[in-house]
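Entry 14. Structure prediction run on the chain below.
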Amino acid sequence: MQITELQSNEQNILQSFKDKEYPATDNEHYGDNIPDFTEKEFTLISKESEVITGQIHIVIRYGIAYIDSLLIGTEYRGKGLGKQLVEMAELKAKKDGAHKIWLETGSTWSARGFYEKLGYTVRAILPNDVGHQECVLMDKML
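Output returned:
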């Protein structure tokens, strides 16, 4: 047996392999309750006049939403805009089939307290993570 890196001309062969093997594996793992594996994503923005004041980007995979980014303009922070964006994203994610939402943030960042106030729970501590900082994985059921 030989292990090599996938070459671009082998993509079709790999897809055929996956199409053949995944149904049995999915059945073994999930039985009759196979999740929707379609990936969805969306971005919500807030605006004042024509100026973007904030954004949240969500990716949904396997019925689980991930907060990829939340960014509020410096002069708009502390006014409830982040909360509104997160809550609207949660509603849209649930409507799009998500039953859970998660994120990663710095363990000591103000974002951690922000998400805890919104009902998110720390599920794991990730030492020496992004930028060698300690981060936390947080989630919430929708």
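The longest strand covers residues 51-61.
Filed with the rest of this week's runs.
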